[in-house]
Amino acid sequence: MRLTRYYLPLLKETPAEAQIVSHQLMLRAGMIRQQGAGIYAWLPLGFRVLRKIEQIVREEQDRAGAVEMLMPTIQPAELWRESGRYDAYGKEMLRIKDRGDREMLFGPTNEEMITEIFRAGVRSYKELPKLLYHIQWKFRDEIRPRFGVMRGREFLMKDTYSFDIDEAAARRSYNRMFVAYLRTFARMGLTSIPMRAESGPIGGDLSHEFIVLAETGESAVFCDRRLLDLDIPGHDTDFDADLQPLIDRYTGYYAATEEKHDAGEFEKRTSEGDRISARGIEVGHIFFFGRKYSDPMKAVVAGPEGKDIPVEMGSYGIGVSRLVGAIIEAHHDDAGCKWPMAVAPFHVGLINLKQGDAATDAACETAYAALEKAGVEVFYDDTPARPGEKFARMDLIGLPYQLVIGPRGLAAGEVEIKRRADGERLALAPEAAIERIVSEVKAALALR
Ligand code: 5CA
Description:
Mean pLDDT: 97
Distance between the termini: 29 Å
Low-confidence stretches: none
Largest sheet: 9 strands, mixed
CATH superfamily of the largest domain: Bira Bifunctional Protein, Domain 2
CATH class of the largest domain: Alpha Beta
Bound molecules: 5'-O-(N-(L-cysteinyl)-sulfamoyl)adenosine
Helix content: 25-40%
CATH topology of the largest domain: BirA Bifunctional Protein, domain 2
Radius of gyration: 24 Å
Number of helices: 13
Number of domains: 2
Shape: globular
Number of strands: 23
CATH architecture of the largest domain: 2-Layer Sandwich
């Protein structure tokens, strides 16, 4: 991509309304633009990150055995009357009427709709388990939307729903999602900690929040430091095998959100040096709630003896748009974002230090074409701006590598690579620089 063709409205000043660094950087780097309280347009650069996060979420859901579909954003109120949640949900639900005066709503979540879809198509316990998911915009009329995409009113969520014949089988579905979540967040460069959590309006009594530690997080959390060093399950994890031992390794350490925190137990189960009391960002939340929806909505299957049995259900959410902010909170410095390769909007920023100089332009075009051909995503600053401006701009948008090409270096047979993560610089011959970037990008993207 060439910057001269792109839409990258950067801000010089830090917007006063943005209180946390991820919100400030998303506005300054031209990733989002506010359209109302808690409602954002995703500009091209931000949209690329959102799409990459979504794709990782999708790959890990598929790997764990979930099946993708798409449900609408608008739902009929009737469905929610069946479960009894229409009135219970309160003012957070955006209620709408259509031209025929029918009551509709903008979905804050999809338990009712998926239960309706399931009961229409599954008859026998032999068709279970079923894990279905979609990635769709939600609306919650939050009292206090804040911190940009972290707590929006309109936000993108991945929500999965599981259907099983009994509690033991439902537990296996829950475990699949538990492991998938560890992998999903790790692939984005985040250390997530599963913590015992309150289930709130979704219901049920088994629930974990996946928390990324951050000073700016909205949740107060308590956990054992050793959780930060556990190995992430590999991409060859067999999701059909018994995952319980893997889960036990995590749940064996103390970790709880404020609502579930028990100070006495915390002290008993952790040594003082391992005790973390901190703040965190909730990037995912998984729930097992049994028959809360299948009972009232009559989602039943014929069991082994032919009798109708209500299914045991769970639901599993990931805050896809919130993750964009969470990743910035974890990876930035004073100059801007420092994207992990897997979610970077582009892999490399190509900086032409003297646009219009024939040799420099030619070297840039050659590098641009060679990198693109090798599957590396290049963002080429082909504007006539001064070098200082180009450097600051590239640091702000935070692509993992910068390839800097100018007349002086070229005369000495060299171009420069700068790694954004640690600022390390390396002067190499143009071909060697390209090779180096291609192999480092490939290595960083390799699935582990
Ligand atoms: N139906 C269940 C799971 S599918 C559910 O709705 N769970 S939730 O309420 O916990 O939301 C799932 C995830 O969406 C949260 O963990 C959080 O990461 C994200 N999320 C929730 N509310 C917001 C919001 N207002 N803005 C941005 N992300 C949000």
